[in-house]
Every structure is written in C-alpha cells, then in structure tokens.
Amino acid sequence: MTANDVRQVAITETLNRKPVETDEILPLSDMWACDVFGLAAMEEALSKNAFKAMKRTVQTGEPLDPATADVVAAAMKDWAMRKGAKFFSHVFYPLTNITAEKHDGFIITNSDGHAITEFTGSLLIKGEPDGSSFPNGSLRMTSAARGYTAWDPTSPAYIKNTKNGATLMIPSVFMSWTGESLDKKIPLLRSNAAMDRAARKVLSLMGETDIAPLNSSCGAEQEYFLVDKNFAAARPDLLLAGRTLFGAPPAKGQEFDDHYFGAIPDRVQVFMQDFEDQLYRLGIPAKTHHNEVAPAQFEVAPYFEAANVAADHQQLMMTIMKATALEHGFVCLLHEKPFAGINGSGKHVNWSVGNSTQGNLLDPGSSPAENLHFLVFCGAVIRGIHLFGPLLRAVIATASNDHRLGANEAPPAIMSVYLGDQLEAVFNDIKDGKVSVTSDGGIMDLGLSQILPFTRDPGDRNRTSPFAFTGNRFEFRAVGSSQSVSGPLVAMNTILADSLEWMAGRLETELGSGKELPEAVATILQEVMQEHGNAVFGGDGYSSEWHELAVKERGLRNLPTSAEALPVFTEQPVIDLFASTGVLSPLELNSRYEVYAEQYVNSISVEAKLVIELAKTVIYPAALAYLKELGSNYEVAAKFGVDLDTSTASTIAAEAKALLASVVELEAELGKHDFDSVAAHLEHCAKTLRTLMDEARVHADALEREVADSAWPLPKYREMLFIR
Fold first, then answer.
1. 32-183: CATH, from 3.10.450.50, 3.40.50.300, 3.30.30.10, 3.10.20.70
2. What confidence score (pLDDT) does residue 190 get?
3. What's the pLDDT at 406?
4. DSSP string of 377-441?
5. What pLDDT is stored for residue 70 in this prediction?
6. Residue 655: is it exposed, middle or buried by C-beta count within 10 angstroms (0-12/13-18/19+)?
7. Domain with CATH 1.20.120.1560 in the chain
8. What is the tens place of the pLDDT at every residue in 20-30?
9. C-alpha closest to that of 334 among 401, 393, 394
10. What's the rounded Cα separation, in Å, for the pair 437 and 214?
C-alpha cells in the first residue's frame, strides 16, 4: 500500500465511522463524585475523631498524626477494594506537564503461602520512585537517584477505572532524597501558604480579627482539537510533535466564523458526554462545552475550585480526554498550534483569592471605589504584574505556545493588566488624588417587548489582554493548552504574596503615623499607581502602537520567544522573589530553568528531525514521482503533436530542489552542539532551526498546491479539519 493509498483509506474509513455506542446515561446525582474518597465518603468510612481530624487537615492544612493516617489508610483500602481496586498508586506531577503513576498491589503473602491485603498509613504517606529518571535539572543523578512521593491529604484520592480494572489513585508530592521539589505540586502548596501568610497580615492591619485560611482558586478553560485517528496515524508529525509541520491552507478555514458555538457534531457530542460523565464520577465540575473558533476545535471549562485541587483535576482531565478520544476514534490534540493559519488552543486560567470569612477578595462588589479589601488586593496584583510580568511570560514559555502568542486568538507576549473602564477610572482617580465615583454599566434595553432588559456589566471584555479582570477574578489568557496550570498558579500566588508583604509593611507605616485606614490605603494605592500603573492597559494589545508604547515609553518587556523568556528564571529579582517567599530555593528555581530549557531544545530538535525525514522520504519522492508522471504525459502529447504547458512541472522541480536544499541546511545546523551557554542554545533553536523549518515548509506547502491530489501522500488540512 502506497502512502497515498493510506490517505485514501483514512478518508474512506473516517467518512464511514459512526458514533460510538455508550453506556446508559445516569442522573448526575447518581454519578457525582462516586469514585472519590472525599469528605462525604470519609464521613461514612471513618470514626468521628478520625473524620474531624481529616476535615481539619483538608480545610485548614492542620497536620495529621500518624495514628489517624493508619485509620484513614485502612478505610481507604476497604472503600477502594469494594469498588474493584486491587492496586494503588501515588500519582504525582513531575516537571513534564504530564502525570506520573507507580502502581503497587494491596497484596502481600504470609508465611504459610496465603495472600492477604494490606495498606498501612506508612504506605499511604510515602512512596519511592526513581528521582533521576524524571527531569530534575541536575538535582538528581543516576548515582544519587532516590526520590520520594508523599500523600497530599488536601486533594482527595479517587478510583481510576479502565477496561483492565480499577486503581486507587493517591495525589502526592514528589521530592528528592535531599528534600528539593521535583514536581509542580510542592511549589503550588508553598505559594498558596506564602499568599495566605501575607494576606493575613494585610487583613489584620485592616482591622479583621476573624480570618479563615486563604486559598487561591482556579477555573481553567481547556481548548483542544479532535482529529480522526486514521488521519493522525498517517501524519508522523501529528503523532510525534503534536502539530502539522507541513500543510497548505484549505480553501476554507475559519473566515466564515461558522464553527464557533455552532451545532456540535454527533460524534463529538457523544465523546463529550462520555468524557464528562467520567469527570463527574471523579468530582470534576465540567460546566461548559462548545465548538471553538477553528474547525475541529472545542472547549471544556470546569467550575472554579481551590487551586491545588483544580490543578490535580486539570491534569486528570487531560489524561481522560486523550484516552476517551481514542475510544471514540479521535486523537485529542492539546498542542497550542496544531494547524497553521487557524486559531490555536489556550487554557485561560481564571484566578482569584479568598476565604470563608472575608469572601472573594477580588470581588469589587457594587461600589468598588469604597471596597478597601478589593482595592488593596487588586492594587497588589497591579504592582506584582508590573514588577514580575516577565516571570509570567516565562512560566508559559514553551516551544508550542510560541506559535500561538500574539496571534488573533492569543494575547501578546507583553504582560499588561486590563481592568475594564470602571476599575481603570477608579485607579486612575486614586493615582491623581481624586475622589472616585463608582458608575455602573446601565441598562441594556433593545426596545423589544419580548426581550427583558438587564443590567449591563460596568466594563467591556478585552480579549487582547494577557491578564484581564473579568468581574470577580483575573483571567490569565496566555497559558498554553498543553500546560499544567500549576506553574502559572505558582507565579501568580507568589507575586501576590510578595506584593501583600509590601502592602503590609506600608500599611504598618502609614497607620503608625496616625492615618485612618481609608487615608492610609489611598496613600499606598496612589504610590502603587504612580510607580506601577504602566502595567495597566485597556486598549488593543495586538496593535503595533501598543508594542512601541509598552517598550519605549512604559518600560515593559517584550519577550516573543521562549528563548528570550526562559532566562528570566535566572534573573536576581526572580531568584529573590521565590527565595524570600519560601516557594522555591535558588537551587530548585535553577533546576526548572534547566529542565524547561532542555524541553524547549528537545521539542525543536524533534520537529527539525521530522521536517528532514518527511521532506526527504515522503514529500520529495512524491514530487519526483509526479514529475515523472507529468514527463510521461508530455511525451505522449508530443507524439500526437500537442504542446502542453510545462509550467507546472517547472514549478514542482524548482520547489522540490529548494525543499531539499533547505533541509540539507537544516540538517547541518541541527548537528551543531557546541554552544557557550544554555541561552545560546535556546537562541539557535529559536532563530536558526525554527527559521529553516519554516523555510522548508514554504516549499513543501507550495508542492502540495501543485502536485495532483491523487499523488499527494499526507492527509490534507481540508480532510483533517472538516471530516468528522
């Protein structure tokens, strides 16, 4: 079977594929969190004292004593075995953006050869995977490989069901034998603790006496593409790189805006229902799903949760999404830009902070100009974004996200804050020392009797801002679809913790000078806006005018590529930020720089190898074969005295020659490894390899437009995007 035959078979089989038959749909009340060992399940399974201890740990972070851990372990094992589990696993989140699992059986044998089940508190609390086999930035080596996983009781255990059985999954942290974090969960927990400490100081100085533990919250909108697995199997670039390295644009793309919020295709609807039923069983509150802007692109958005649990659920969601897609004959693409020329995918992280006593501290209420709690916390965010905007760019820096940032579906790489008209006016009045008057958005009345009037929001929505206030939270829109949300959450929590510590110090000084609280807050916020207000921008973030204004007049940094953004991790203010808050030691922070830099280099290298391989062994031979066919046609025509136009053959020959020349140059550059520094290697990947890959693509895509459709070997965009 030729390569083109594979493509034709893929088209036929995809056209004939029917939606998968799924099990009977249960009511939400019957399935919600039924596979989760959460507080409801614990209350039934544990003694009153053990349950109260666990509840305090979950809700306030209070330490759990080993005796209670033994009781919880026994109850957890019995609960899991009733659900068919024979194995348990500490599930953890290494520096790879994916989830890791190490499965162990409940089974042990005794002296008379019989098998019994056992699961003690010590097994629940600690596991021991290899610390050197995961990315670790030189923290671990083969000769010093010990690593530990440790149970995180604040994130509930759950049952993972597959066709091969059930496994008890225990969310855990992952560390080296010497105590350094090797994962994404430990820094997230530390950052939340740092934010809690700093926020309590501020609230105490503002006169609050009853202050419950503060937590950050997260609701992440997950965008993704679905491509039939027949097409994906015939595209080595999709399988190994997650994106199409070649592909001419189809005659129709997304220009009609007819896919966004359109009717969901039947196969996709069945997939979504199956996928979300599994989420509901695991207590993951999937709230919204719909068609996204690009053809074959979709979105699922959960309701917000505590950041630590939301991060775990986000990882689990991506795992389930990919596995369920395969069962329905799809491949789920989480790459930020799997198809050139149409929108890519992001993961907008909606973030806020609050507690049970003061509520959501980023909710302005009906009178934001008079809401001192909100003004202080919002001011702290503004200060943090101005000081550490480059850090926010660094934590979303990946080879895949570079393709998306700055395009018409994603914000630019310059980090700014959008507040909306109402709040921007409030903070500008504070900056100018004026008394601000809160205005609302008025009433929306269309003059149609059948359409009820409603209150309009006080500000519009700015989709070009990387960090936008959206009513009672900030939306970090620059996060990539394939990323863990933990990194962005760590950065946001840590930046806020630093600003709140600064706020607490300034409040102490101003209140100590005899000022009343409102005057003290006004003084501090005026200082914030005068020194850091340059980060506030409500205009078009895509415009060239903003890019020039931001850099030249406001002093903001533009870091368009990961090669420019990742070295921010090595800058002294960032090192000091993480060290002073206790979130990451200098050693741990440097390890992340090394890991993320290596991942960037590896991603570009894999893509470059694929470009070379596909160009040489698939596209170039297809062009030559078609040239040979054209030559035969010209000869036959000449025998009958017909003079055919040979311009197509000339174009194909020229593009094939240029393609081969570009990949030869790419191959030579890919072989270079003698770089003075990590930063130099990153720049070589960004400026040289990426440029040569793009050049090769230009010639390959030109060939796709000239070679006969019947002779083209790779599934085309029109097939992958529009046949479902």
1. 3.10.20.70
2. 96
3. 63
4. HHHHHHHHHHHHHHHHHHHT--TTGGGTTTSTTS--SS--EE--HHHHHHHHHHHTTPPP-----
5. 87
6. buried
7. 600-722
8. 877 777 788 88
9. 401
10. 30
Token match 């190898």: residue? Answer: 609
Q: How are beta strands 165-176 and 85-92 bridged, if at all?
A: parallel
Residue 425 to residue 533: CA distance in whole angstroms: 12
Separation of alpha carbons 215 and 441, rounded Å: 30
Instruction: State which amino acid sits at residue 42.
Output: M
* CA angle, residues 580, 584, 590, in degrees to nearest 5: 115
Measured at the alpha carbon of residue 67, what is the angle toward residues 64 and 73, in degrees to the nearest 5?
85
- What's the token pair of residue 158? 């759950």
Q: Which two tokens stand for residue 157?
A: 């255990």
136-150, 176-190, 258-272, 359-373, range with the lowest pLDDT: 136-150
Alpha-carbon torsion, ordered 236, 238, 242, 246, to 10 deg: 90
What CA–CA distance (Å, rounded) separates 584 from 579?
6
Q: What is the Cα–Cα distance from 497 to 490, expressed in whole angstroms? A: 10
pLDDT at 446 over 50: no
Compute the C-alpha angle 503/60/587, nearest 5°: 60
What's at 66, amino acid-wise? P
Please name the residue that has the structure tokens 């406001």.
554
Backbone angles phi, psi at 159, to 5 degrees: -100, 125
Site of tokens 């008394």: 435
